[in-house]
């Protein structure tokens, strides 16, 4: 099932077109990751699908209607976005920032209702940050702050959450912490997750669906097995990758890679020993 899709979409800045004639479908209640080299249009596509920026031509359809025709507050009840560099929350407590997610539901003077407060409490609980409710956002670690921004997105009560490189600037443990949280939200809450990731192995491990982009166009979209392929990665990243299987998840994993130098294909087979690879993790 697909609630969100694009048709022949072009997006750019000024006279420069970044995303070209794009057609993409976002599977409902699944995790989709968008991969590609820097400047290929990943973030631009994310911003266009969430109406942060306008598309130049084509159509972006959500629930059978163009997003350009939908009321802003109503659209904010359907989807939330966490940008790559969220605006500063200086001076705010965790609880105050998370409560900002209730903006689409507020009327009049914008006072929080009992329902709003209940949702904020739930968002703090599900993201594991309730203990920081009265602490300054500035005083938290990078991973904790990222959880706060995700909690704010959850407080919007949207069924779709978009994240632009949610693991940027985080160490390995905090990256895993954030991605595990998103997976939990997808599996237990049924949220549709769409995120831009740079790490191929993280993309393959956590995604149900992958969109691979290059120069504003989609090179390949589909399951992890269909996209994390040697020929696809060669086109998208200009690398010659050795693909194996993660012994813990059985998902495709990029074991190593070299820059692709454009040599002719050979019939040489690379032997991959799963047992040897697995021994490195035991």
TrEMBL record:
GO terms for molecular function: ATP binding; ATP hydrolysis activity. The keyword Ion transport applies. Pfam families: ABC_tran (PF00005). One of its GO terms (cellular component) is plasma membrane. It is a peripheral membrane protein. It is found in: Cell membrane. InterPro entries: AAA+_ATPase, ABC_transporter-like_ATP-bd, ABC_transporter-like_CS, P-loop_NTPase, Siderophore_ABC-ATPase. Gene3D superfamilies: P-loop containing nucleotide triphosphate hydrolases (3.40.50.300). Keywords: ATP-binding, Cell membrane, Ion transport, Iron, Iron transport, Membrane, Nucleotide-binding, Transport. SUPFAM superfamilies: P-loop containing nucleoside triphosphate hydrolases (SSF52540). GO terms for biological process: iron ion transport. Residues 4-240 form the ABC transporter domain. This is Iron-enterobactin transporter ATP-binding protein.
């Amino acid at each position: 099932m697909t609630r969100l899709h694009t048709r022949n979409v072009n997006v750019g800045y000024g006279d420069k077109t970044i995303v070209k004639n794009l057609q993409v479908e976002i599977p409902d209640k699944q995790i989709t990751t968008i991969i590609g080299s820097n400047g290929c249009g990943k973030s631009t596509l994310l911003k266009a699908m969430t109406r942060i920026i306008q598309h130049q031509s084509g159509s972006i359809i959500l629930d059978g209607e163009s997003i350009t025709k939908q009321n802003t507050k109503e659209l904010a009840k359907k989807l939330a976005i966490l940008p790559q560099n969220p605006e500063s929350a200086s001076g705010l407590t965790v609880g105050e920032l998370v409560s900002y997610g209730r903006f689409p539901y507020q009327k009049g003077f914008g006072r929080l209702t009992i329902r709003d407060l209940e949702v904020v409490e739930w968002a703090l609980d599900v993201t594991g940050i309730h203990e920081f409710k009265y602490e300054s956002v500035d005083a938290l670690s990078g991973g904790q702050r990222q959880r706060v921004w995700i909690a704010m997105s959850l407080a919007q009560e949207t069924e779709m959450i978009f994240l632009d490189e949610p693991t940027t600037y985080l160490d390995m443990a905090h990256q895993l912490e954030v991605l595990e949280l998103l997976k939990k939200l997808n599996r237990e809450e049924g949220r549709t997750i769409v995120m831009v990731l740079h790490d191929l192995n993280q993309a393959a491990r956590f995604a149900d669906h992958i969109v691979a982009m290059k120069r504003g166009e989609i090179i390949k979209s589909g399951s992890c097995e269909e996209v994390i392929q040697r020929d696809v990665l060669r086109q998208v990243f200009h690398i010659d990758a050795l693909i194996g299987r993660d012994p813990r998840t059985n998902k495709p994993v990029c074991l190593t890679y070299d820059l692709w130098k454009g040599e002719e294909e050979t019939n040489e087979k690379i032997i991959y020993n799963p047992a040897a690879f697995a021994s490195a993790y035991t």
